[in-house]
## 1
Amino acid sequence: MRKKFPTMRPMTLLDDTVTRLGRIRAKGASLRSIAAEPAIPYDWLKKFAGGHIPDPSVNRIQALNAHLRALERSSRT
């Protein structure tokens, strides 16, 4: 009899973005400082971080993810 392994769903861009946002905030970054990127309005970021945007647009998530990656890179140097 074959063992069944649980299937893991691949990490999506949204999952990756939420994870990165959590890591950066855990290091003490404020939402205001993260929202310094023009494509990421503070009010939207506040709602997103609070889980109040159930289906965010891919354009905003892509912009936020790119911004968070840049912040992580700059904090390593």
## 2
Amino acid sequence: MPAPKGSQAPSRIRINLPEPTIDCGRYAPKRCVGDTVRVTADVFRDGHEILRAVVRYKAPGARRWLEAEMHALDAEIRGVRWAGEFAVTTMGRWEWTIEAWSDVFATWSDELQRKLVAGQEDLSGELSEGALLLRDAAERTKDAEDRATLERALDDLTAEAALAPDVLEAVERNAERGDATRTGVHALDVDRARARFSSWYELFPRSWGGLKAVEALIPDIADLGFDVLYFPPIHPIGRKNRKGRNNTLVAGPDDPGSPYAIGAAEGGHDAVHPELGTLDDVASLCETARAHGMDVCLDIALNASADHPWLTEHPEWFQQRPDGTLKYAENPPKRYQDIYNFNWDTPAWRELWEAWRQILVGWVQTGVKAFRIDNPHTKPFDFWDWIIKQVHAVDRDVIFLSEAFTRRAVMRELAKLGFTQSYTYFTWKNSRWELTEYVNELAWTKEAEYFRPNFFVNTPDILHAYLQHGGPPAFVTRLVLAATLSPSYGVYSGYEHFENVPVREGSEEYLNSEKYEVRERSLDGPLLPMIRRLNEIRHENPALQTLSNVHFLDTHNDALIAYAKTAPGNTIFVVANIDPHNAQEGVALVPAHLGFAPAFTVEDLLTGAHHDWRIGANYVRLDPHGDQQAHVFRIAS
């Protein structure tokens, strides 16, 4: 085999397994403004030369690359895993790469030092090599002080002078990176902090008196500690095939229909139902939310009623059977006779995509800062990749929440493509072992680089049997778990009133579902004080604002779940009784490897009580019919 062609010899340095990356760099990991990004890689070469490495990084839109030094994690044994850090200070797509090179002077000085220690006397040959290296560095430097340091060493070139710390530092600053090797450029998507940490409250505006009435409630909702106010679709609702109460096929004359059957003579996805208000009302509501530190999220359901204007204007965008009839939406056994899907394989797909871009950008310009996307897993992956970038080009603040209860690989792919947050299987994880396994997966596997969970305790479509049969203690347990396990969680209105009656046994649909009728809602549920307190605790304790810091503790009782979450200067312990019917007792076993003091005091942030804890077993008893169903402890300062 002939030798490689080219004027430059092949690199002898290898940079392998750079992190953080996803699928070999195909997708960008996620971070938030203010994060410190830790970059690692295996850096090595043949021979015994000493290496140097830096992580080079660049902010969105910047021209200049900055550098942060990397260090071997096991330097004392010449380890090959290196690490470096840099801070991300603005939103957008950051870039980074790793550069490594042989430090010729450090290699030379190391050999010289070892020869001195060994007692070798004639070092003239070695010093002649050092002189060349010092002269090269002196000619290259633009710093007068460094030049003077190097020239003094050259004037009196002895081993001691060449090995002086100031000389070594001056050479390192100015040495040539003759055999430098770089990785490819890797991407990193940086969002605002709310992308990772947020508390959501969902309500149907029609059940609260319309948009103006909801706007008047925003100060009270903000006072409860919520960061995002989320609305199901607020658009005109179709009349043809309209559903009645409890999803019946025939609607009564006063039945309002499902807000997911979007489109009527009054408009489509770009319009507001006239009984709710106007576009100006949406803008005003969004402005009031911003003034109270909140964002407004709008549900985007990419489907249409039979009365949607697009059915007349763009029939080619819909799924038509060979006989000319339209195919309504189905998710067997669920059937949605009032909803029609779009044909994403239409030859006019470009026009369809552009129409949706205009819809989303229009709502952003009205003041909407988040979109909850209904069933994104039934639309093309490339569409989401494209439209999220399009919207972020207009406003990088916008949050996309994926409502995809589907195959795990599909949920992961949507998150990789750019969805800011994702619904999860949390609602169906109700035992200690299920929760431990699932949260550990989210927190400690590769998913933590891109999949940001949002633990909704309930949704208009999901009333789990645990809540149906557990009564108020079950609601308390699930609320505490959602609010303390996940940095982002959500509550659908009605939860604070302990609503738990299904339409029939074995169903997760609510009886008298708000999806099909107007309810009279008010912000006065008995669970609201605990919701407020938990949201206060979340905002006061950084340990609850991240996910990959959770450590589950043994309890010697599967009806109890316990875990610790830590941040610098802040440690939270949570113990919850998963059994909503019976008192349970056990221990929270604090392992020594977590690094806590042998004994310490914890304060229950829900009650104010103090307890003495220690490394090892700590007795707990929780009674759903007594004074407490869960503890949220903080190590007292």
## 3
Amino acid sequence: MIHRGPEGLSIPDQSLPDFLLARARELGERAAFVDGVTGRELSYGDFAHGVERVSAELARRSLRKGDVFALLAPNALEVPLAFQAVLHAGGTVTTINPLSTSAEIATQLADSKARFCLTTDALAEKALAAARGTGVEQIFTTGEHRSLVPFAALVSARPDPALRPRVDPREDVAALPYSSGTTGTQKGVMLTHRNLVANVLQLDTGLFRDHERLVCVLPMFHIYGITAILCIGLHRGATTVVLPRYELETLLETVQRWRVSFLHLVPPIVLELAKDPRAARFDLSSLHTVFSGAAPLGAELSREVGERLRCRVVQGYGMTEASPATHQTPPDPALAEHGTVGTPLPSTEARLVDPESGRDVRDGERGEVWVRGPQVMKGYLGRPDATRATIDADGWLRTGDVGVVNERGNLAIVDRVKELIKCKGFQVAPAELEALLLTHPALADAAVIGVPDRECGEVPKAFVVRRAPVEAAELLAFVAARVAPHKRLRAVEFRERIPKSPSGKILRRVLLAEERARGCGG
């Protein structure tokens, strides 16, 4: 059975920056972005002019249509400006987690064939080290590092419309975030201008109002931050207060000070808002909606935070490969249900498929979520086989998530076919950690699974077989020194052997079942 969102979505044939900045001049002095730490503001008029200036200067510095520009920075006002300017110049942006190691950054720079990079003074040495041996030719900084080009020089340049190439919204790739998809290797997700324009319009279903006040505390390198906060905020004339990192009291102070009306979060932060006594010390009465995404939010927690903050709590669902959103809580409160991610977005189709038989399941039965719509990616960069394995000949994107559609048509995500770990909304590929563990001389074998964690949703746990004496603490430190914080192991269990199939595939489901049995006291 195919579940369909509302039909009739009209997608303009425009580049993403042209679409988003159509109202910028009429909004003029209204603040588009505010630095939540310094109070520095960037108006819509200045943002639009900045996009044109940076775009022209990048063209003068030899950025050509299709060139890749890497953004390696924490949240800052320069990030959305650089993002839209690169697209305006016909380039493609790949976003990189600033907590990644130099080796991880180098891998993405090389795979994406990035020619340019924007970073910060604090990350300059890591960026310089990562860029060695890649195709990166110029590195810019939001600061004044002596070895890098100041981004301020781009913003003060002279605009020149003649330098701008024509963009084909249906074919030209705008964003190139990296995702593990339904397999364990990082791949560049090719999202076109049309993909992103479509998803902004799809998310604009009535939950979001004109001139909202937002907080961007979620990372701008994540597709959730890119589309659901930055892009839809620009589209609807919102003022977005930018915070460089998450800290509960800072977030609460920001909501109170700026009278924030719409708050984008992930489940671990929702949990803190529901449980932490500090939340009661702040005036959060300006909030009308909390939007949770990146991982499922349980019904009980959803109700609890809604009652505490006296606002509506809604969810969105999707994946990087879908720009990212495919489902959202219905705007009509009478149709919404806590613990579900709602119904398909406009011009989006969804099916639940039995992974074994390939047949559609009935409502109330579990099945893998398949989706189709204009927001689905063009494909994986340089990975046609992986693209074919993820999107079938009819355009259906296999999400790897297991869901149930109830009698009211709302989807609940209940499990995953894929074995990725979702830690604080970020993907962690077990295969990546297993490969790293096997480089340790004391280990003979390893398997990694995600185990439930109240704060993070899931955390990685390793099962290892020793070939020489080694303690768990040494292995935890070994991995922590080589990966980003969200990928770090939280536990190690020693085994005599790792369960495997006759073909040698790790049977992670066996380990997961054992872990669940322990959790139930079995």
## 4
Amino acid sequence: MHGFRTARALVLDNTPAEALPVIRALGSLGIGALYHDASPDAEYSEKIGGIRLMFLDMVLENRSATPDDPANCVSILIGALEQLLEKTSEPVLIVCWTKHSELKEEFEKAFRATFADATILQVLLFEKDKLVEHLPELVAAIKEALSHYTAVSILLGWEQMVHDAASRTTSAITHIVSEYNEDPAQWNALALQVCAALCLAERGTRLLKESEIASLQSFYRALNPLLLDRLEYSPLILDWLPENVAQLLRTAVDSEKIELDKKKRNSLLPVGVRGALNSMVHLSYQVIEGEVSPGNLYFMNEPSENRKSWNAGLPAVDWKAVIENTFGAPNPTEAQVVPSRTSSFDVSASPSSSTAVSGTAVRFIPIRRSGSRRVRWRMPPLPRSVDGPAAPSGRRRWPGTSLATGS
């Protein structure tokens, strides 16, 4: 049921009756919540991700926790969370149901040790039996916690905007089907026709020679520009953000520009941060082997007419800066930005207008799909040589110039 998994709040309590008022209170704020009783007999094979707000019962009696042993209570709770949650760097705000402040300090220390990459916005204390009647105070406390993390507030607002834009995209397509469908019994048939038309528009007739899964992938890709349209014109979500968040962001922008001009640089970000940001745009390890897609990173044979034609038509590119800004380091010994992405690649500068990856000369070749809005740069799983007709001309986005450029 992945299509309905949109909750960002978790309520953990071994007594469902005590958790229900909190779930109702969150619902009154438009916040959907997951509930779990932390039972040791529950299924924990699939861990939960994307949680931003947690309400935690500090004494899980169904796991033999007792109030007279605070240290054991914390240990048991952390063990339950470790079974439930993915270990990611996602920001989280935690509300603990307890009267004892010493439990909060013990819990926060243990949580940081176990979920070392997570960003704890704040740990709040509320008494369980008074939480609902003091709901406005809780909302105010959450806003206060977010006010100390301006960037997180902005990102969470954008995350909600994406969710809302996706919902409007789905609603728009189903509305089209309903508007032009005359027989309710044929609604699904017409909806499938619409999906098929979008698949062919995205992939073309080559889709007929590909797998069934390729049809599904093509349909989702066709939805991306529709989603982007609605996201670009989404209303800003400001009601729950700290009042001065826009002002703080603008002040940061102004300060950044002043420092850039003063130091005559294109970016104040450390090289590692630039590489990590740009790799989100330029590199991908989800490309299917053998699939020709816009923005793949192709490996061209050294003696190649196609390569010569590209050399003649390429604009002047500082390939050393490209490598540094995309991979986060100018040479292999410094490639430490995103180890999971760079550890298997030998990234080094080359005297020619190319890079060296695992000893293979490579060239960034943008292939622009008709109707696409931007070029994506993707890294195929395995190096391969590709020689064929030159890619069609069009707007190109060169690595290292789109997000965080180098100095």
